[in-house]
Request: fold
Amino acid sequence: MKAIVQWSLFLLVSVPVLGQGKVIGKVTNADGISIAFANVVLLAGRDSSIAKMSMTDDSGRYEFSSIQAGSYVLRYSAVGYKDGVSPGFRIGASNTPVQREDVILSRANGSLESVVVKARVEKPLYTQSMEGMVVNVQNSILTKGSTILEVLARSPGVLVEVQSSSILFNGKSGVAIMINGKLLQLPLAQVMAMLNGMSADNVERIELLTNPSAKYDAEGSAGLINIVLKRNEEEGTKAMLNVAGGYGWGEKTVADLSLTHNSRNLNLYGDYSYTRDRSFSEWTAAGSEFPPFINSVMDFDVSSATRVTRTSHTASAGAEITLGNSVIGGSFIYNNILQVYNIRGNGTYDIHPDSLLLANSDLDGTNRWMSTISSVYFNRKLRTNENLNLNFDYLYYKNINPARVDNLYVDRNGSPAVLNDTLFPAGSLGSAHTPIKSFVAKADYLKQISKKVKLESGVKESWTTNSSESTIESQLDGSWVALADESNNLSMNERIDAAYASTTIQFDARTSLSVGLRYEYSHTHLDDRLKDQVVVNRNLSELFPDLFFSKKVNDHSTLEVSFSKRIRRPSYNDLASFISYNDFVSVFTGNPSLRPTITQNLKFGYVFKGTSFSVLVGRDDYPIAQAQVVTSPTKRWLYVSPQNLQYQNNLTFQADLPLKVANWWRMNYGFVGGWHQFKLDYTVIPVGKTYFGYSTYSTQTFGLPANFGAELSGRYFSHFYSGSALIRGFYTVNAGIKKVFSGNGGTVQFSVEDLFESYHIRSAFGSLTEEAFDLRSHLSFSPESRLTRIYKLSYSRSFGKRSISERKNQTNGYQDEDSRVRKY
Reply:
């Protein structure tokens, strides 16, 4: 009953009312030539939500009909031209058409021949695209004071599992992460650490791409998540300050300062952010198993409490110069994270019939991540409707992780247990050093062959080198001893060559088709230097086709069909075979025999008045499941490692429903779910399973008097399977309120994370089939918000004078609509 009452706070519905107005107009260039197939978006003047979208015909004309009475603004965009925004206008209650003046768009790389308004337009929180969904994160009150990882964890269909360092997307593992379209060639655990040290105040949007086109890397069997950082393109010098403080179990602090200076031919920007977070989490496990070396049933009940203090510094800068028809630019992002942690654990091991072992541990450690992402690019307009882009990227990442653990083992009488074994050491010293280097060279060519045909092609080559040196020393009889299987010196080299070509045909103003093909060749080589042996030496050559078809049925609805093929290559951490201690029965390790995952998806979509529905049929061959349990070759250990399933078939439904209750109240509901069928054979008894799993999300936004606003959002995940592990359902609810001060006085926002302290991850082994060592266990992970709500208060304000072109438009009938434009 409590859960029902809590969900009822935001499970509401409404029916919008349509009007009868009409808007017609034409888009041309500075020479008076009509621009065909330009995008025209009709925006509500009050809050910039998208009312309708259209495209110009062969003569550059557009038309909107059945428009509700009210204030509106038009936004124009076309390939090779700078975006434009119209002055505000009104639609009356009559059916009289509103004739707009011809719109003149200037060339993107040429001189300004007319005034173009360079203003950012407020967008809905969620918008649909052919390749997936876009989350406009700055439109959420909850963004301020959060890290990028925290915002990503609140995105539709995304589940961030901190306890296992994994990210699930629409119920599947194997997601690839990009920043500004550049793939992060890092293991997912390292990517998560980086995103958790970067402020979300710098993010413009998050693109959740379920069916990316051939121009993107084929990596990511579950899809791609592209994090697009903010960039201010208004002329002039501006600054933006964001500060936030909060408290849960411990204090949270975020401070961010960004500077931009833009002129006609030179753009400069820089940003620095600092975050500090002191947090707490708990983990428990209870169950039974039958270790062969004990030859008896053993019941266990273990728990741990983790205290972490994390500080991070992130700096970024970039420059872009326009020289005639060429653009030259460069950028870098530097991130430095220091994490100091303490883990206290205790466990009870009851060995039948009468032995009892009590274990207590106290682990202190530090973890430092340092990374630099640098990029240089060159864009050249070769001739009309023909462009060449060159990109060179370099990523350097380093992780240093020393740690010490002190252990105490006693019997049922409280007497110290004499175990003199590296499995039961009085103390352990651990050290790890992991540098990763990645270099990418890329060239893209685009040619608008005709008004109806566009060609895109490109080549890319990337080189990545990973190495790891780690050692665990055990304290035995007063001496520190390191065994071979507790040390490693691994080196991995991976090279990926790729080429793609894609053709887009715009048959008419309503119908388009895009067909692409990508080829990738990869070579992966992993050496164990201590054992002087090759762990992995694998070549893979694969073709990745894609298809996108769109048909605009009428002014209100569009049909879409797409197909794509993708891959997930095992990461360095997945393949590395070194072990790390879990308890005296189990260890964490990699799996050198992992195979890549190949995914094929066919998607059918339908969009009606901003509401989108889709059906996705997919097949994964050899999907990878993290943290599965298998028996070691010697039968002595329980290995906790990634494993390949044989296959997984998916039939997924997705819906996104924006609703308007009143001028001051908007809703957005979403659903992602369907049937999943998988089979695996690494357990003692192979098993197949078919189940229905889903997730839902809801966001309520309220426009309140005196420039106040509020937001209430929630998500629910049903039960699902990660390999043979059953993950039980859970939900979270978040809330926030903001106040915008007039006269550029800034914005104050207050938010509450996990309002009902409901974020609780529970999982089980042994419920689906018989596991190694006949393991039957129930695990529970409680993050900080489960133990205490997290409160955050933030303040943001922009500084700097407006550009001449912007001021000119504000004195030309634009004043009434100025309040709807969000400026940096």
Observations:
- DSSP finds six helices and 49 strands in the chain.
- The radius of gyration is 28 Å.
- Confidence is low (pLDDT under 50) at residues 1-19, 110-122, 802-824.
